[in-house]
Amino acid sequence: MYRLARRFARAEATRNGRFIVAASFRVGIGYDIHRLAEDRRLILGGVTIDYPLGLVGHSDGDVVLHAVTDALLGAAGLPDIGDLFPDTDQAYKDIDSSKLLADAIAKVAEAGFAPNNIDLVVHAEKPKLSEHKQAIAASLAALTGLNISEVSVKAKTNEGLGPLGHADGIACTASVSIIRSNGD
Ligand code: MG
Fold first, then answer.
1. Tens-place pLDDT, residues 36-72
2. Which protein residues have a CB closer than 5 Å to ligand 1 (ion)?
3. Where are the domains of the chain?
4. Phi, psi (deg, nearest 5) at residue 178
5. What is the C-alpha to C-alpha distance for residues 12 and 109, in angstroms, rounded to an integer?
6. What is the distance in A from the centroid of ligand 1 to the CA of 166?
7. Cα gap 167→128, rounded to integer Å
8. Is CATH 3.30.1330.50 the right assignment for the domain spanning 26-180?
């Protein structure tokens, strides 16, 4: 990966006549939270998880994909998920959030970047996610074109504190790096 970054950095230097490392590699952060309720499917990172409650949202409520999408868009300096896919637009009602992520990846590609790695934390008191982390990482890798070794999924409880600690909802904090993909 480091060699790849250096290659793109050199390409950038050739084109612009100066050496710009920072322009070739960028980082973004995303956060999302949704309430848990009955009569909803629980979908995290594109993976359906067997649980009596699911996340409420205009879309499918997938907090993991929403946080990752926002982190990607932020890294590229693009408008955020709420601006691009407003919850007042019926086109996004109950939409599979992987479609929003694919759309964001296309916009990031237009801006000249590709996903490089994902690191995220799911904040969930219930259900216990330890047995689902690998499946979520594999799903994210497939959706973003990354290797599974470039995707990290961590799950944390909120130690019983506050609404998250009372299992009223699930949140996700994601960090995503992107690398210049049109350097040559
Ligand atoms: Mg959301």
1. 999 999 999 999 999 999 999 989 999 999 999 999 9
2. 32, 66
3. 26-180
4. -130, 155
5. 16
6. 20
7. 11
8. yes
